[in-house]
Design brief:
heterodimer; A: alpha+beta; five-stranded antiparallel β-sheet; 36% strand; B: alpha+beta; six-stranded antiparallel β-sheet
Chain lengths: 149, 158
């Protein structure tokens, strides 16, 4: 069920349908490749001799993309989303293989200097134990072009 | 990996962390776009991202930009990597990072990544290091700025 067709349809107070998924080695390694992260901590095999493979902390931002893909399946809308602020707080390291539950809501939508801002607050938890791993607040501009604000 | 073995944190104040100097290339912007699509899908198949303001000049210009700009998560990752390398699992277990993208980073710009410990105690939820973090162009302009905190005390995961 989509909350809105586009991200630009979202309104303050909208609760996003949660996403549950398994954090796989592939997801973490591919993210590492994309951001040139070479620490073995994020590449080691889940059951390898060197221990545990962990999630890159900034991968939290992809949780937001998952939520938006689920809730706004047709994308950003008339204007591109422009990311203006990232704010993540971590409470425990996330081990690859964990089944994660990502939930979130639209905490604010407001105009500022002719542009429309959207703020989403999220939590990432262990789907089995409910342990909190990360809280995240993400702010984007929905309409960068002033003539589209 | 943990480098905070003391208990006061005061000896950390003033510590400066510096990352490698990097050029924001078109390829780096593309790599992030493709990784975003691939990891968000998460089905084990590689994706090539469609046109965005980060990988398609025409698309970017249609949005009022002069050309492609880097996704803010690239510079955020450069900052995060400094923190992970300095504080290891302690950062993964209790760190916090807030970045604001105050100026776009364009193709070809040279970027320096830096963090400085500005205080070593005093958070409501326990003693934490506080850091100022930023990515700056070769010309001295701030692009990505923010703050980070790292717990001083170990905890079960550190």
């Amino acid at each position: 069920m989509a909350t809105g067709r586009y991200t630009s349809d979202l309104e303050e107070g909208d609760v996003l349908e949660p996403v549950v998924y398994q954090l796989t080695p592939f997801i973490v390694r591919e993210y590492c490749h994309g951001v040139e992260e070479d620490l073995e901590l994020f590449h080691a095999a889940v059951d390898g001799p060197d221990g545990t493979q962990y999630m890159v902390p900034t991968l939290t931002h992809i949780e937001k993309i998952r939520l938006l893909n689920r809730n706004c399946p047709d994308g950003a809308g008339a204007s591109a989303r422009i990311h203006v602020e990232y704010h993540a707080r971590h409470y425990a390291p996330v081990v690859v293989g964990t089944r994660l539950r990502v939930s979130g809501h639209v905490s604010r939508r407001y105009p500022k200097r002719g542009r429309e801002y959207l703020e989403i607050e999220m939590e990432v938890r262990d789907d089995a134990t409910d342990e909190l791993y990360t809280t995240y607040r993400d702010t984007v501009v929905l309409s960068y072009r002033k003539d589209q604000a | 990996m943990n480098t905070i073995d003391g208990t006061s944190g005061t000896d950390e104040v003033g510590r400066v962390l510096s990352g490698p100097t990097r050029t924001m290339t078109r390829e780096r912007m593309r790599w992030y776009c493709d990784a975003l699509e691939t990891t968000a899908a998460g089905d084990g198949r590689f994706r090539i991202a469609g046109p965005t303001i980060h990988n398609d000049d025409e698309f970017a210009r249609a949005q009022g930009l002069p050309g492609i700009i880097a996704d803010g998560m690239i510079s955020t990752n450069w900052i995060s990597q400094l923190l992970v390398r300095a504080y290891g699992l302690r950062y993964l277990a209790g760190g916090e990072l807030r970045t604001r993208f105050v100026r776009p980073i364009y193709e070809g710009e040279v970027v320096h990544t830096r963090a400085e410990v500005v205080s070593g105690a005093g958070a409501e939820d326990g003693r934490r290091l506080s850091l100022d973090v930023r990515c700056v162009t070769d010309g001295g302009e701030d692009c990505t700025v923010g703050t980070a905190t790292v717990p001083l005390d170990g905890g079960e995961h550190a």
